[in-house]
Amino acid sequence: MIDLGISKLALIGAVALIVIGPEKLPRVARTVGTLLGKAQRYVNDVKAEVNRSMDLDELRKMKDTVQDAAREVEHSIQTGASDFEKQFADIGQEASGPLAEPPPSYPEYKHPRKKWRLKQGAMPQWYKARTGVRTRALSGAARVARYRPHKIN
């Protein structure tokens, strides 16, 4: 970059003061400052984008290596499973002789019939009873009759 020291900045300021004039110098300085700030932000954005693209390339490479390793593991598991199935089939053919027992039969699964049409509340009844939540609505007359103090003779 350009090496600007204190002496060079003072020289540039003095020339700007003479050329531009003291009335317009603050406005020009503000404009130059905002333009330099925008340029710095643009350069920083470009740097960040380049870094993101480099990180993305690295992540893609890592993803490819992980996928290759996963394919290798899957292939080895499939070959091992097929070998095991062959061995199991050979053992099964040897064992299926005239004295072989039939496999045990299990009862068929029966789904528990729930009352799916019945709407269930989210709060259990025991909790409602413990905390005193009303579960049944009372009419106004029934409420008055229930909570009216009884006369003792």
Overall radius of gyration: 43 Å
Assign the structural class, choosing from mainly alpha, mainly beta, alpha/beta, alpha+beta, or little secondary structure.
Answer: mainly alpha
Percent range for β-strand residues: under 5%
Number of strands: 0
Using the alpha-carbon principal axes, give the shape.
flat
| Low-pLDDT stretches | none
Major sheet attributes:
none
* Quaternary structure type: single chain
Q: What distance separates the N and C termini?
A: 106 Å
**Continuous helix count:** 4
Q: Kindly state the mean pLDDT as a whole number?
A: 84
Which range best describes the helical content: under 10%, 10-25%, 25-40%, 40-55%, 55-70% or over 70%?
55-70%
Topology as a string of helices (H) and strands (E): HHHH
Can you walk through the features of this model?
This protein is mostly helical and 153 residues long. It has a domain of 88 residues. It is 66% helix and 0% strand. The protein is built from four helices and no strands. The longest helix is centred in the middle third of the chain and has 71 residues. The chain is flat, with a radius of gyration of 43 Å. The model has no long low-confidence stretch (mean pLDDT 84).
Give a topology summary:
Elements: H1 6-20, H2 25-95, H3 125-131, H4 140-147
Q: How would you describe this structure in keywords?
A:
153 residues; mainly alpha; 4 helices; membrane; TatA/B/E; cell membrane; translocation; protein transport
Brief overview, please?
By secondary structure, the protein is mainly α.
